[in-house]
Amino acid sequence: MDFLKKLIRKQPVKGGLLEVEIITLVYTFFTAAIIVLLHREMPAPGNLLAMRTFVILVTALLIWIYTRFPSQLTLTLRTIFPLTLLGTWYPDTFEFCRLFPYLDHYFAMADQWLFGYQPAAEFSASFPSIWASEILNMGYFSYFPLIVLGALLPLYNKGITLRKSSFILLCCFFLYYIIYLFLPVAGPQFYFPYLNPEIIQAGGPFPEAGNYFSEHSVLTVPEGNEGIFKTLVEVLHNSGERPTAAFPSSHVGIGTVLMLMFWSVRSRITWVALPFYVLLCLATVYIRAHYFVDVIGGLVTAPIFYFASLRLYEVLRKKTMRE
User: Fold this and answer.
1) How many whole angstroms separate alpha carbon 208 and alpha carbon 272?
2) Is the Cβ–Cβ distance between 130 and 225 less than 8 Å?
C-alpha cells in the first residue's frame, strides 16, 4: 500500500524531454526523413509515416498527462513507452533494407572461409537430439526474459535507475537498427532455402540474391524434434521474422549489453543469466537465424555500443537536470 501511495503521490513537475524520449524522437525523425526521400521506392510509405506520427503523438500525450498529474507513475509510463515499440521498430527495418541488394553471399563465403563449411547448416545436423534442440531453443527464447530483466533491473538492484537502464537498452537497439536499415542481410534461415542444397554441401559458390528477399520471405529451421521451446521459437519467427537484421546479431549484441549491465552493478542476476546468455549465442547459429560471423559482429559491437550509450546518457542526463 505504501508503494502504491509513493507511486501516485504528486511530485514537482520537471520540464524537458526524458533521455529515452530524446533518442526515440531522433530515431523517429531520422527514419521519417529517409522515408520522405525514398518514398517512391517504398511500397507503403504512408503506413511507415503513420506509425511515426503515432509515436510522436503518444509521446506528446504522455508528457501532457505527466504535467497535469506529475507522479512517479506517469513518469514511469513516459520512460517505459519507448521500450514497448521495440517489437515494431524491428520488422520496420525490412522496409528500408529491402531497397538494396542483399549481401548474404558475402557472409556465407566468410563462414566458409573461416570453417570450411557452413556452421548454420552443420551445427543442428551434428546435434539432432530433442535434448540439444530444446536446450538451445530455450537459450534463444530466453532473449526476451533477459530483456525484461534488464529493463526492470532497478526494481531489484539499486545500483541503476529505470531511466538509465531503459536508455542504455533502447540506445543500443537503435544503433543496431540503424545498421540494419542500410545493410541487407537476411540470414541463413532465408538464404539457405534460396540455394540448391548441393551448393551448401559443396561449400559454394554462393550466388548473389539481389532483391529476391524483398518479395520472398520463406524461412527454414532445423527439421524434427518438435519440442516446446522449438515450437515457441517457430511461432515467434513465423509471426514477426523478416529477411533483415542478420549482421551483426542483435540477439548476441543485446545479450552482451545486458550482461555488461548486470555486471556493472554487481547484480547477482549476472550468474543466473550467464548460462542462458551462452546458450543464446550458440542458438542463433543452431536455429539458422545467423551466420557465425554475425555472432562475432554482435560480440565486437556490443561493448562499443554499451559504453557509447552510457556516455551519451551521462551527457543527456546533465542536460535534462539543468532544465
Assistant:
1) 42
2) yes
Q: What is the pLDDT of residue 1?
A: 47
What are phi and psi for residue 115, nearest 5 degrees?
Answer: -115, -20
Q: Final residue of a domain: which of 52, 84, 116?
A: 84
* Predicted pLDDT at 13: 56
Domain that holds residue 62: 1-84
pLDDT one-digit tens code per residue, 92-127: 999 999 899 999 999 999 999 999 999 999 998 899
Q: What is the pTM of this model?
A: 0.92
Helix pair 292-322, 250-264: axis angle to 10 deg: 50
**pLDDT digit string (tens) for 243-258?**
999 999 999 999 999 9
- The percentage of the chain sitting over the pLDDT mark of 70, rounded to a whole number, equals 93
Count of CB atoms within 10 A of residue 30's CB? 12
How many structural domains is the chain composed of?
A: 2
CA distance 261 to 254: 10
Between CA 257 and CA 150 the distance in angstroms is: 9
How far is it, in rounded angstroms, from Cα 56 to Cα 316?
A: 20
Contact residues for 117 (Cβ-Cβ < 8 A; gap 6+): 203
Whether 157 and 237 map to the same domain: the answer is: yes
